[in-house]
Amino acid sequence: MLALERRGFSGPGAKERAVREELGLSPVRYYQLLNALLDDTRALAHDPVTVNRLRRIRESRRSER
After folding, report:
1. Which of 16, 24, 30, 54 is the most exposed place for a label (fewest CB within 10 A)?
2. What is the mean pLDDT of residues 16-27?
């Protein structure tokens, strides 16, 4: 999941298509699992740059609500 998040996607729907094809998940389920993964210390140890970037995005979206 973190490797997928590191990739750049061109065009609308490309990321969702990759989630379905590569991981066999619906986009909704993918984002549920990703959100839980961001709180896992093992994910932070594995890829701190990506996890911290995604945490910042998550926090900014929460504060916009």
Report:
1. 24
2. 96
